[in-house]
Amino acid sequence: MQAAARAKVPFVVVPFRGLGERALRAAGAWKATSVLPDTSTVSTAVRSRTLPATHPNSFGRTAVGEMFGAGYTVSVEFYDLLQGETDRRLAKRRFAQAAGRARHGILDVGAGTGIVTETLLTASAAPIHAVEPAAPMRAALLSRLAGLGADQRARVTLHPESIERAGLEDVADLAVASNIIACLDPATRRSTWEAVSRALLPDGLLLFDPPPTELPTGREKVGRLGPVRVGPDIYGADITREPDAGFVRMVFTYHVERDGRVLRQQRETFEVWPASAAEIGAELEAQGLQLVQAPHADLLAARRPAR
To answer: Is the separation of the CB atoms in 11 and 82 below 8 Å?
Structure first.
């Protein structure tokens, strides 16, 4: 489940914002993927950069670029099925109006499977810069673009790296970061603001959903995705969170059932980093971005001042 940031976590409505899988896409929050039996518990091993050999199907990460290269190996299969409609409704409500006012370009930070990208294409005639470092998510994004008209595809430039490495300067009068910022560690979050500021034109607008402001007090069940039926099978996911060393560990447990029997169960773990509104404001200001009134209560907005 979410460029500067994607990175992203699969989106889910929870007590705090920014827990979508798009969230781990763009910037490096994704930690580990593993296939676990029903009775397995999530140990501290899933936080490590390199998982033990007892989990041959698991992945560790050593750098932001590597994270995005192989992230979402589990989640990409389930993402659109379980979360696509929610993402699409949110994207239209949050970004369509601002996209309609964009004239020079739009930056989609952590494009994921392309749901937000498609919304931006529909709402605007401007070119789109879709930043998506994770190869599995890019595959889904390109499949989505393949189903669109050639005129729409011609307006999309796909950047297969993090926003920090994309080298974009003065290309957009609107940038959106959907379900991403919460999944960035503080250093990556700050470098993301810097890259977005460079990519925005003077008076350009950034829209994003903010991270949580505090850690949970203990392990909590956040919610459930689905159920969604495909033929005889029922797809769903359970989400839990717990505090760990200054961040929140989010665990998405996907399951496929048939006739009441679990056929498969897979887990993917993400990190979410709290930050206060004051911290976010100071970080943006340091990169020449000023907080402004957001169009919706669940978003924050910043603008690059006109010269």
So the answer is: no
What is this structure's pTM? 0.80
Q: Which residues of 281-291 are buried (b: 16+ CB within 10 A; e: fewer)?
A: bebbeebebee
- How many C-beta atoms lie closer than 10 Å to residue 17's C-beta? 22
Q: Are 107 and 199 in contact (CB under 8 A)?
A: yes
Helices (H), the chain: 64-70, 75-101, 115-123, 135-146, 150-153, 163-166, 186-199, 277-286
Cis status of the peptide bond prior to 202, with omega within 30 of 0: no
Beta pairing, strands 172-177 & 200-208: parallel
CA distances from 119 to 88, 116, 158, 220 (A): 7, 5, 16, 33
Residues 41-66: tens digit of each pLDDT: 332 222 222 222 222 222 222 223 33
> Which range, of 54-63, 86-95, 96-105, 172-181, averages the lowest pLDDT?
54-63
- Least Cα distance to 291 among 199, 276, 300, 17 occurs for 300
Region of 179 (left: φ > 0; alpha: ψ -120 to 50; beta: rest) is left
296 C-beta neighbours (distance < 10 Å), count: 14
Question: What is the per-residue pLDDT across 232-248, written as a single tens digit (0 to 9) for each?
Answer: 999 999 999 999 989 99
**Beta partners for 221?**
240
